[in-house]
Design a protein that fits this description.
Length: about 625
């Protein structure tokens, strides 16, 4: 007779045949010899897996497809079908379809031809038909479009075979046809689909693949999805047309010094642009001469405010490009007044960074200055993925001509002529102090507009001399890189809009490649594991997912670049947010990255990575369940 056995729990799972009959083990009575298509609950129960239901065959079904879930809201979820160069979307058990068009006729023929006025179908599209009167065999079915001639649409089955409607009922009236909503995708091969890794934040999903740049998939409405390469950088441009002028004060005479300012834009999401081109002025030192400078610029679309930064005052002529600028104030208008505000050098303009597009222009070497009376524009040959920007800087060439020798000078006097030009008297023609020779201490700098008309009168001298004027010859002394660009495969040619100047560009380091692993942790987007640096990860600024800018000096909220360091190469496979910090799964180990203690915030000034186990992971996406991965 049968023997009834009561088993209250299955939480010791499926046992190996080697443990059969081991009734002496405590867990024996909570195990099973075979659990096929069952899930075991941690509380002991076992339940069959969720069933499946046929929805529709894969589009272009001769190729492989990849299925990814997209949770658009608490109550709305989609399944994304990614195939050979396309994506389409399944919602509530059916493909998402576009707006429908009315059917006005259908032929009883082989193949069947529908008349659909005003449709937008193309050969190869799939359409869904409902509510046809008479020829009801067409209703609630999906068809492929075999051909289109005007309003006539020839239909076939989903494998491209003709629909033979000769035995169907005669069409009487009504019916609509709607195209299945489909968008293009860069992923085509089976390897492309297999290696796609993704991470979602609200209505956006980041997709990474080693052979493609990172993409962002965004849902606007059910029939409006966008898939675009991620645009790295601040979402707002820096101001242009920055100028600085004397507002009031500055009684003569005074010893001129150089003030320099840059301005950044701030958008409504709090993102700050990189710095504008610098604006400089040669004027009195406001620290000893009460006065005010006014900085102005052109309005930037989308800006809610602007930050103004000032360089340290220069007593030695023009302020060199690349010096540090410190914060002096914020305003919402396009003008700012500075009445000797001390710059805060702990806050500096953001430094734009894009870790995934290398081979930009690092610097330019001027090989011949040419001769100029106005500043030329600068461009570069080639077809980079990001176009660089630069400006030419003019300085005086050779020894200036003495147009008027003046009187009262002494050997060693310095004479300033504005524009950052400083000359030193080296010889005199008479006892009256007439200048017979001088040398250049500072060649000056002009980065926009025309050069001054010769002769140019002195602005100030360290002695008591008066009346000296000079005639200058100007040429290109430097090319200042404002934006390095990216994606150069060969060194570009530097092109000046006019004149005979020549220069050579020098490229920076190349990119490590496309990121392979995305993730969202502590309000930062993480892009990790490019082929050239498989154990390196890059973290965006908090709340600014596509902004990888940094500051100098470093701020806690800056973007982060970090590398897992161990005795063996660790290729990052997945990233998971956890209570302890950021869990990084590699092919050799699992790591926890945090601010130094469990659960502490990761920042640019506080980041620690520690291995947790030496068990590697594969490219299969991790599954998070309760407290386990």
């Amino acid at each position: 007779m049968s023997d009834v056995s009561v088993q209250a729990s299955f939480n010791s799972g499926e046992w190996s045949p080697k443990l059969f009959a081991r009734v002496d083990l405590q867990k024996y009575k909570s195990g099973a010899a075979l659990l096929e298509n069952f899930f075991v609950d941690y509380r002991g129960g076992a339940s069959t897996r969720v069933g499946t239901r046929y929805i529709i065959q894969a589009y272009k079904s001769s190729t492989q497809v990849r299925i990814i879930n997209f949770q658009a809201s608490f109550a709305v979820g989609y399944v994304i079908e990614i195939g050979n160069g396309y994506m389409r979307f399944i919602y509530n058990g059916a493909p998402v379809v576009e707006s429908s068009f009315n059917i006005t006729a259908a032929t009883q023929a082989n193949p069947c031809v529908l008349t659909i006025p005003g449709h937008n179908f193309l050969a190869g599209d799939w359409i869904y038909i409902i509510n046809v009167g008479g020829m009801t065999q067409l209703n609630s079915r999906y068809f492929s479009v075999l051909g289109v001639v005007g309003n006539a649409v020839t239909i076939g089955d989903l494998n491209g075979a003709n629909i033979n409607s000769t035995s169907y009922g005669a069409y009487t009236s009504g019916g609509t046809a709607a195209r299945i909503y489909t968008i293009s995708s860069p992923y085509t091969s089976a390897d492309d689909l297999r290696l796609i890794k993704y991470a979602q934040s609200v209505n956006q999903m980041v997709l990474c693949h080693p052979n493609h740049p990172a993409y962002i998939l965004t849902i606007v409405t059910a029939t409006n999805w966008t898939l675009n390469p991620i645009s790295i950088g601040a979402s707002i441009s820096p101001p242009t047309g920055v100028t600085v002028t004397k507002a009031f004060g500055f009684a003569s005479p005074y010893v001129p010094v150089e003030y320099g300012f840059v301005v950044t834009s701030i958008d409504y999401n709090g993102q700050e642009s990189s710095a504008s081109s610098p604006a400089v002025i040669s004027t009195a030192d406001m620290r000893s001469n009460p006065a005010t400078l006014q900085i102005a610029w052109s309005a930037v679309t989308g800006a809610k405010a602007y930050n103004v930064y000032q360089a340290e005052v220069s007593y030695f002529g023009v302020i060199p490009y690349g010096v540090q600028y410190g914060f002096v104030g914020t305003c919402t208008d396009v003008t700012f007044t500075d009445s000797n505000i001390g710059p805060d050098f702990t806050q500096s303009p953001p430094i734009s960074k894009n870790p995934f597009t290398g081979s930009g222009i690092d610097h330019v070497i001027v090989t011949a200055p040419g001769t100029y009376t106005s500043v030329p524009t600068v461009s570069f040959s080639g077809a980079p993925s990001i176009v660089p920007s630069a400006l030419a800087q003019l300085g005086i060439q050779g020894t200036p001509t003495i147009s008027a020798a003046g009187t009262g000078y002494a050997i060693g006097d310095t004479i300033q002529f504005g524009y950052g030009i400083v000359l030193i008297v080296t010889s005199l023609a008479s006892g009256a102090g007439d200048i017979s020779g001088w040398t250049v201490q500072n060649s000056g700098a002009i980065t926009s507009g025309a050069t001054p008309t010769n002769p140019v009168a002195q602005v100030h001298t360290s002695g008591s001399g008066t009346g000296a004027t000079a005639s200058f010859t100007w040429g290109v002394t430097a090319v200042i890189i404002l934006g390095s660009g990216a994606g150069f495969t060969v060194t570009p040619t530097v092109v000046f809009s006019s004149g005979a100047a020549t220069a050579t560009a020098v490229l920076g380091s190349s990119s490590a490649g496309n990121p392979q692993v995305p993730g969202f942790v502590q309000q930062r987007l993480i892009l990790a594991g490019p082929n050239g640096a498989p154990q390196t990860f890059y973290m965006s600024r908090p709340g600014q997912y596509f902004n990888f800018d940094i500051s100098n000096p470093i701020q806690a909220s800056d973007a982060i670049t970090a590398t897992l360091v161990s005795g063996t190469l660790n290729s990052i496979k997945s990233i998971v947010s956890s209570a302890a910090g950021m869990l990084v799964l590699t092919d050799k180990a699992s790591w926890v990255v945090n601010g130094g203690t469990s659960g502490s915030a990761i920042s640019a000034t506080s980041i620690v990575a520690n291995p947790q186990s030496w068990v590697g992971a594969s490219d299969v996406p991790p599954i998070v369940t309760n407290y386990d991965v």
